[in-house]
Each structure stands twice: as structure tokens, then as C-alpha cells.
Structure prediction request, 392 residues.
Amino acid sequence: MNAVAEKPVPSQPEAASSTLPAATPLARRRQIGSLLKPALGLIALLGVLVGANWWLTEGTYIESTDNAYVQGDIAVLSSRVEGTVRTIHVADNQRVHAGDPLISLDPADLTAVRDQARGSLAEAAAAAATGRRQIEQARTAIDTAAAMITQAQAEATRAAADAARSGALTGSGWTSRQANDLAIATSRKADAALVATQAQRRSAEEALTVAEAQLVQAEARQRTAGAALQLAENNLAYTVIRAPFEGIVGNRAAQLGARVSPGQQLIAIAPPPESLFIVANFKETQLRRMQPGQPVRLIPDINPDAAVDGHLDSVAPATGALFSLLPPENATGNFTKVVQRVPVKLVLNPEQARAATWLRAGLSVTAEVDTRGPGATRRGVIGSALARLGLR
Prediction:
């Protein structure tokens, strides 16, 4: 008996899962992108609004240039006399005060010159004193001669009267001719004595004139000697080179024992940070709204995070090109218009300058001038937005 073959039973389909299949990575990225696009658009719109608000309220009023440098009145000190360097009182880059000694030269030779000038002055003073005494003697001699003239005039008058009486008596026979001759001789002698005393007075007056002229010469020599002494003392004082103002020493070229000559540069004094200033060369198109007193922010290239504040002090009276060694002459040749730059002096806030350790003459900075006025406040992008919303 043939067995009946069993029909195969068709397999039943699996029950559908109650959960959704896991999303693919591509679909996940698409979902995230669809969520981020509106957010990014909103953020971009807010950024544009914030930037536009800053530009309209602050940025458009700020004039900036990176053609700006720290400068200061550096004094290069030189010797005013010839000498040998004996002492150097300061170290390199040391801060000094006005009047502090920096370098001393050997004063031996100039001390001797000073002493010699003192001796010459004392000699000239003695000669002037002698001239004054001679004038006093000449005036005394004049007074004596005047008294003698008075006496001689009286004696001549008396002798003339005696001679006249003697002549009358001799004619009438009352006296002898010898007595008459003696009276006449006495009268003539008195006249001669009068003439002699008058000559003595003229001599005394001439001596007074000579003494006065000699006194003028002596006093002139005294003044010359005094000037020579003052010059010698000045030269002796010049052997000590002192700081002309408070600052920092640098560029020391003096060496112990070196022989220096007048005019030779020995050391330099740079001003302290609070005395430094900025010279910014702005384009002529940036100067329209600039006025003294406007606030300035200075960003140093050495450390952009160490910005300091200041204010606009003054604008140069001419462009920098006109102050150059060879000023341009645009009336000849082919003309090419070039935007000119004008130096603008910017002064630092003293307190911030003292705290800024980076300040050195010659460094580069970026200068930003706020042309809104002295009372303007820099808030920045975020600060301007908060101020617009009334939150700051």
C-alpha cells in the first residue's frame, strides 16, 4: 500500500513588530539639520542685528590706524668738558630722579684752574681797592692844594700891599731903597708861590683823573677775573653729569677710565612711562571729526590684551610729508594723488601708563579715536546691545 505523501505546510508570516525600525545615520543627520537651520538662521540674524547696532551707535564714530608709535622726549647726554671718566653712578636701565649724578669725570685739572681763577680775582680785587685809595689820595691832594692856594693868595695880597707902601715911603724918603727892594721881592715871591700852588692843584686834579681811569681798568679786570672764576666753577660742575629729569637710563656708552671730549655722547635718559605719548599718523580723510580731548584706546602690538586709554592732545600743523627731509613737489612731473597722513599726538592716562609695564618708546600700537566727544563711553558689541535693550 502506497503511503500518501504529506503536503508541505506553508510557513506562517512572522508577526509584525510593534516598534518602528531604528533610523539610519543619514536620516538622523537630516532630522538634526532640519532643527538647526532655523536656530542658526536666528543666531545669524541676531548677530547681524547686534553688529549693526554697534556700528550705528559706536563703530562708525571710531577712527583707527595701526600707523602709530610710542614716543618720548629722550635726552642724549654728552660731556661739556674734557676729562677722564672716574665714576659711573648708575646701572643700565635704572630709574633715576632729576638731579641724580650719572657719571663723574676726574676734576683735578679743573680744580686747579678754578683755584688759579680765584687767585686772579683776588689780585684784581686788590688792584681795584688800591685804585680807590689812590682816588681818595688825589682828592685829598686837591683839597690841600686849594687850601694852599687860598693861603698863597692872601700872602700875595699882603706882599703886594707892603711893596706898594714901601714904594710910597721910599719916594718921600721915609724908608730906604733896600727895604723897598725887599718888599718888592717878597711880593714877587708870594706871586710865584701862588702860581706854584695852583700848578699843584692842577697836578692833583690830573692825578685824580688818572686814578679814576686806573680804577675803571682795575674794576674791568676784576669783572673779567670774576667771569673766569665763574667759568672755571661751571666747568668743574660739568664734571658731574646729572639727570635733567626723572626717567630711565639707557644706551650707556661711557666706560671707566675712558678719555672723553666735549660733545661726546655718554648716556641717554628716556622718560618714564607716564611721560610717554603716542604719535599716530591718521589719513587726512579721518581727521574731519577729530577734536582735542576725544577719548582714545591704544592697543599695543606687543600684547593686544594690555590696551590703555588716553585722549587726543593735538593735531600737527602740517602733514608728515612736509616735515620730511625732501618735501614732495607736486607741481612738477606727472601728478599722482596720494592720501596724506597727518601726525596726531595722543596722551596716555597717567595712572594706566604707570601700570602698563609694556610701555617703551618706539613700540607700535593701534590707535582708536572715539570722535563722539570727551564724554563718550566705549561699550563694545555686547555692551551696545545690552544698552539698546535697557539692560546696561
The two ends are 106 Å apart (CA to CA).
